[in-house]
TrEMBL record:
Ranges annotated as spanning the membrane: none
InterPro entries, per database record: Cell_wall_metabolism_enzyme, Dup_hybrid_motif, LysM, LysM_dom_sf, M23ase_b-sheet_dom
A Pfam family recorded for this sequence: LysM
Signal recorded as keyword: yes
Keywords, sorted A to Z: Signal
A single GO molecular function term of this UniProt record: metalloendopeptidase activity
Name of the protein in its database record: Peptidoglycan DD-metalloendopeptidase family protein
The family this protein is said to belong to: Belongs to the E.coli NlpD/Haemophilus LppB family.
Domain LysM: 68-112, 116-160
UniProt signal peptide: 1-24
């Protein structure tokens, strides 16, 4: 314990020195993720349950549907035709250029698009579905033209992109979880009449992982810096080709990490090994923020937070080789440079 304490003190002193000597901006050297250290901090969190994609695994039982033409009969509905053919109602609507309220008429000939269709069941997430079939969730989003907030519907049939024959082990190995997956594919499907849970200010509520979280509708106010410190690495590709979807900020160990804007917690955990302890907030208008390398996670999924509220303590977890905070701002599926949204610092 003494060696670890001494090491922490030395690293903390280095971080303080960096924050005083390096101006906010890009670091003069190229930061690379370090190998996982055997003495890395353990991420502590409030009592909670595993995420829905762990508790509700998916069976790869998609039905193969052949492309065909269907003639509409009296009393047919688009969803009823989907049930008869096995294709997704949304896929049929897209193939036939139908828009809401999806009016069809007797005798109309509809193109039924072929492919593998997975029928979504209660509590299933996009992450678990993509993992079951060994395909990137982003490809499932594209194949089905899914849009924010990316919450699936129980009974919905979604098209699974073809990957060729794969064993269960190969499918599992082919899927790599990333931040975009959690932001867009981490919420469980909802059934007819179900509503996502409204946020509460209390961290005492442990929301069941099979209940979706209702994100804010609108972004409230500008973004603020989550911590004070030097920016060690900026947004975008580095000299060695690695990509940073946010910025890396040097901070002493156990520095309070604060919400960059009002929002709702949609994820707390450490399921992306490179980033260690992570908090993800949604803020409305398709904005989300990500806070990585935390040592302590102080909020709960489904909790509402205010700008400036303490949500975590900084650490050196994940692949960090110094105390630091990884910070992202995302608009929909795309990360954007946080420096374009944060207040200017001298």
């Amino acid at each position: 314990m003494g060696g670890r304490t001494t090491k922490r003190a030395a690293i903390a002193a280095m971080a303080i020195s960096l924050s005083g000597c390096i101006p906010a901006g890009y670091a003069p050297y190229d930061y690379r993720p370090a190998p996982k250290r055997s003495d890395a901090q353990t991420v502590s969190r409030l009592p909670s349950t595993p995420p829905a994609w762990e508790l509700r695994p998916v069976s790869a039982d998609a039905k193969l549907v052949s492309a065909s033409t269907y003639t509409v009969r009296h009393g047919d509905t688009l969803r009823g035709i989907a049930n008869k053919t096995g294709a997704g109602s949304e896929a049929i609507a897209r193939a036939n250029h139908l828009s809401a309220p999806f009016t069809i008429y007797t005798g109309q000939k509809l193109t039924i698009p072929g492919g593998r269709y997975h029928r979504v069941k209660q509590g299933e997430t996009g992450i678990a579905i993509a993992r079951a079939y060994g395909v990137p969730w982003s490809q499932v989003i594209a194949a089905n033209d899914l849009e924010s907030p990316y919450i699936l519907r129980v009974g919905q049939r979604i098209l699974i992109p073809s990957t060729g024959p794969m064993t269960v082990a190969e499918r599992a190995a082919a899927f790599n979880l990333d931040i975009e997956d959690i932001v867009t594919g981490g919420e469980p499907a909802i059934g007819r009449g179900d509503r996502p849970a409204k946020a509460t200010a209390s961290s005492a509520r442990v929301l069941p992982p099979t209940v979706a979280v209702q994100p804010p509708a609108r972004l409230s106010g500008p973004f603020a810096w989550p911590v004070e410190g030097a920016v060690l690495k900026g947004f975008g590709p580095g000299k060695s080709g690695e990509r940073n979807d946010g910025i890396t900020i040097a901070v002493p160990l156990d520095t309070p990490v604060r919400a960059a804007a009002d929002g709702v917690v949609v994820y707390v955990g450490d399921d992306v090994p490179a980033l260690g302890g992570i908090v993800i907030l949604k803020h409305g208008d398709d904005y989300a923020t990500v806070y990585g390398h935390a040592s302590q996670l102080l909020v709960q999924r489904g909790q509402s937070v205010k700008r400036g509220q303490e949500i975590a303590l900084s650490g050196d977890t994940g692949f960090a080789d110094r105390p630091e905070l990884h910070f992202e701002i995302r608009k929909g599926r795309k990360p954007i440079d946080p420096m374009t949204k944060l207040p200017h610092r001298s």
